[in-house]
Amino acid sequence: MKRIHLTITAETPLAIGQRKPGASVSEAMDYIPGTVIRGAIAAHILNQTSDSPADGDDFHTLFLNDNAAVFQNAYPAVLKLSSDQYDVSQGEVKVLPATALSSKTNSGFQPKAGVFDALIDSFCAREHGHFYEPNDVNGDRVEPFKGFYSQHQGSYYAHSVNQRLLTRVGINRRRATAQEEILYSIKVLDEFQGKAQDGTPQPTVYKSAILISDDNLATALQTFLEQNSPHFRLGGSTSRGLGKVHIETQIEDIKDIDERSNVIQARIDIFNEKLNERWSLWNVFNDSNSTKGRTFFTLDLQSDAILSEHWQRTTVISEAMLNQFTNIHDPDLQLHMAYSSYDYRSGWNAAWGLQKDVELMTNMGSVYLFSTQQPQAWYEPLAWLESRGVGDRVSEGFGQIRVCDEFHLVFREGAE
Amino acid sequence: MIQLASLNQSFQPSTTLPLTAIIDTALCVGAGGSSGSLSDKPILKRADGKLIIPASQLKGRLRHECEKIARALGWAICESPVAETMCPQRAGLTGNFQHEHYEIGDRNPDGSPRHHCLICQLFGNPSLPARLQFSDLICTEDPDNTPEVLRPGVTINRRRRTAEEKKLYFLETSPANAQLPFTGEITLLPGTPYFAQALILAGLKHIHALGGSKSAGLGWLQWESSVFKHPEINDDIWEFLAAAPSPPSGGEP
């Protein structure tokens, strides 16, 4: 199995629009969804040939198979080190969990008030029978802090992109004046994020990846992407100059399942170690041992997910659903906490020439805390789930998860 | 059957027409909805401060010129920019529209061939993606050398021959007579009809000014591009464009 890392540099503004049902305003998303990248690559392949896709060919394997390639979302990767210093994150860009909190009045990573995670504390408080209303170490009120983040030289940085509004008008050919009802505004993502000290503008850079199980096909796709890199356009209004990007690729082998399950086990061990430490602190209120013999782990949604249970949409990954996703039977599996919210998403399918159905989806950053008494059975299935995803349309980047995100270990006293 | 390895071997780079517009006068491309300027009509800039002529304006203007040329040659052309009067709606009408030259090689769900006028085949419409990709024309001059120029204007009352009340306005323009070069390109995607380059070059020759207040002397330009010097367009293409199908008697043109 191979992973093609994509570094996408915007050369013109990107119009990544989303229109919610019933709304008349087209908003811009602050990242490039995997489904947009997938659609652009598929359209480009079809434009290059007069052949039609057939069963078993590369197009079918990449886009149409049950085990099709996974096109992950592209998240902004520009770090703002200071007012005139920028860099591109070398590490992984991740989504902050829904349990991340920061000061209401001075929110942000250090040197601002700092960001911390409340999952473990809120779980301990609830299990000890206490009401948990967090504040920061200065006593200020806190509220959820959402977005993308990465670590750079030991410090945490939030990632975001600037947006602006472009206004355009159609011209009536007879009167040579503005055409009625063709005045419109497009919200776009800026192609530059500011100027460095020497005056050079910092281009907006996004990072994404494509996961492919067929090694030869991965190499062929990388060659195709490199050859056609100057001609890719992402988002809307592409023939009118928007969405021009430059794509750099880097291919790597994905570790085998044993190695990946070892990584998952190490993460789960550290998570449980910290949870037990915290649990012992909360035990000053009343001595409780309800965590004894149980191993806890979290699922953190790194992208929006489309989840359904009993043919109905849901925003919670239940024990039965997780058993089904991993194809194992664990009657001891228990869901303790779920932090999730929902939104609606539609889109345009160029192949159909029609709008996609409106889907109810669970927002990225959602957190689910599970525990089990048989952790050994879970390491490998969770490693597989982390590389594949949960729910529907995983090949379009939906349902990407991370097991036991390290940010859960950032507590209130050590807010980053 | 689509195999990426064979696609990679037969890779042919897309045709790109480089373009440079030298602005002879001052340029005034208004940025609708902008704020932070003293003028009533601020000039459009990129996020890094460079002046631009947006691709949407170049595309719209070139489409208009190509429509004029094709119509003058006798081709039936739909009426942009309103979707209701463009090709997909015209397809069922009588006239010389459903002609073999207008077939795009694709078929409707009922099996009948799809027809789009010559212009829509290049520039697209709500049901057909464009085969041409335009880029913004970006001023290559450093933004520090293109300071904000405010040009005041006032309307004259025709009876009193004095300034009309509430008609004093300020336009933001590029520096006048600075011969600022704006560069960009037009990319012809694979599958672009073979007459595209001829029509584009002919259309560009008809564009003498861009932006606002053209009749007041702003935005006048001349094109510089290697494709104008050696266009390498076959005579067959010119003959094809000149041989528009004649409309049937009684049908709409």
UniProtKB/TrEMBL annotation, chain A:
Short name of one Pfam family: RAMPs
InterPro entries noted in UniProt: CRISPR-assoc_RAMP_Csx10 (IPR013490), RAMP_III_fam (IPR005537)
GO biological process: defense response to virus
Residue span(s) of domain CRISPR type III-associated protein: 7-245
Record keywords, A-Z: Antiviral defense
NCBIfam families assigned: cas_cyan_RAMP_2
Name of the protein: CRISPR-associated RAMP protein Csx10
Organism: Thermocoleostomius sinensis A174
UniProtKB/TrEMBL annotation, chain B:
KW Mitochondrion (keyword) present: no
Start and end residues of each CRISPR type III-associated protein domain: 25-221
Highest taxon in the source lineage: Bacteria
Assigned keywords, A-Z: Antiviral defense
InterPro entries, sorted: CRISPR_Csm3_endoribonuclease, RAMP_III_fam
GO BP, one annotated term: defense response to virus
Name this polypeptide is given: RAMP superfamily CRISPR-associated protein
